[in-house]
Amino acid sequence: MFKLRKIPCAVMKLDWEIDKRNFSCTSSINVYHCIQDERNRSGEICIQPVWVQPNYCPEFNTGARALDTVPCNVTKGCPNVTFLSNEAYEYPVCLNKTHKKEILENGVYSLPWFWIVIPVVLGIALLVLSAAYFVWRRKRDDQKKNETSNSLGNSEPFHRTKAFHEAIQYLENGGTFLVLSGIWGSGKTKTAKEVYRSVTGKSPTIITDLQKFDCEEQNQALIFDEAISGNLSFGEMKNLQDNIKLWLAKVSNGKKPRLAKVSNGKKPWLAKASVGESSELEKISFGEHSFLEDEYNGETKTFIIFTSMGDRKSIFAYITSAASDKDFKVINLNDGLTKGDRTQILNSHFTTSCPNKDFSKIEDLATKGNNESLGYPEICVLFCRCNDFQKKKGVDFCKNPLRFLRDHLEEMYHSEKNKFFMLVYMSLNQMEIDVENLDEMLFHKLETCKSYNHTQAEPSVDKKIEIVQHGEIDSGNIISLISPEFVDKVPKSSKYRLQHYVIKRMTLIVFGAFHFGKLLELSKPEDLKGFIKEEGIVTMVNNAVGDIMPYLIIGGEKWLQYQQKMGWKTAGKS
What we know:
Layout (H helix, E strand, L loop, with lengths): L2 E2 L8 H11 L7 E6 L5 E6 L3 E2 L3 E6 L4 E6 L11 E2 L15 H6 L7 H35 L14 H11 L4 E5 L6 H13 L5 E2 L14 E4 L8 H20 L35 H8 L7 E5 L4 H7 L8 E5 L6 H15 L22 H10 L1 H5 L2 H6 L1 H15 L1 H11 L4 E3 L5 H7 L21 E2 L2 E2 L13 E3 L5 E4 L2 H14 L1 H7 L2 H4 L3 E3 L17 E3 L1 H11 L8
Parallel strand pairs: 8-11, 8-12, 9-10, 10-11, 18-19
Antiparallel strand pairs: 1-3, 2-3, 4-7, 5-6, 13-17, 14-15, 16-17
Helix pairs in contact: 4-5, 6-7, 9-10, 13-14, 13-16, 14-16, 16-17
């Protein structure tokens, strides 16, 4: 049993030996440990030790009742060798993450009295001199909070997982191509951004559309966020390979590269070049690009991070062969989560969204569910931000998040129609709404959706949304209709954005179930691609763990309408 301590664990060998004798572990296998748990609480237990790798700390997982290892998230003092978990006292950073006050009270790392008195005196003086500033700052912050709903977040907490540290190590050791794979909601984009910032110290350059990748404009490391699909043609892969090769040459030696040749008569992604110039691609050497990078700019980092729903190793192997001396690394974020990672991710989101609730009542959810329909980080976000999900059985939600989300949106459609249509508006407007620059045409088109009546195939008369008053949009009422559990405030702007793509997709699925004709009318083909399936072709809508699949299943005339919208040729039609 993990016995909590009121004071932190000893960090001196003599003190640790005294605590060990007082605790009395009688087994030669289960030896004395004094470590912290996933909530940074110090405690003692008799348990079999485990090996801890460099830059990691041992931690007791109260949910699993087992030892775990978690990344050491400080800049100095982390273990630099492999050690046994019961020897954690040799590494104070692993034991005293949140107990600075207790450390001082108990004499560990105590300081001479004058080093305490002098800062206190200086602190008082600074407080007096800066009182006016803090009062002004407080009033300004309160005013900003009153301008928007303080329940709308603008950032999500991020836990540095084992996969994060593995990615950092790969890139800092000279890695060039990194693939972060995983199902939607597994944190690929967020992890890619945080890895990029940690390695470069800069904001990331993100490519989401291959057509907009121009190597002449890009002069630093890149993130290709879900830009590589599984159905790229050979010509498209060849163009991308050539352009990556040119980009590597540019960022390595600072020279303006030649442009890629047009392949098979198709428009290249960058710019046009004559056929006679294509042979120049073979003259570029990449074996020395790390050395050239140092000469060109000591701060330039030469790497690309790809995010992908699947590993797609054959595609990435071909694309990254642009640098013949470099291999690529794939890190699957679904498989890379340790038990400690899962607990910390759940804890960080729960304490952010529910600061006044007891985490111990739900911490066992960190070990529940296989997360085959939605990534674990996004499951934690939805659960922690939505009170309705917390009121239901947490284990069932972790196993069936898409089913719960769909049911919640359907209930919102029936009981809070205006809020639901606000989500529809954002889903059809690049996942965001600018309350100072609204698309009035889209709002008025959504007015024609009436309350659902199962006796009608499609609504035909108006049911006006309350945000429209006398033909004009009441912008003052817009914010009150934004659902804080699904929407984030974009910092320093008048924009609000859906928290994740899964919100958009499930919202459009529910909207299409009630208003399919209106969904086709208001959507662009790219908004519909992938989540509408023909009835009879998709006969099973449950996946391996029982959750629903994120598809809108249609048939008959609706399927023909969908084919026409997508520009597909339909069989049997003249």
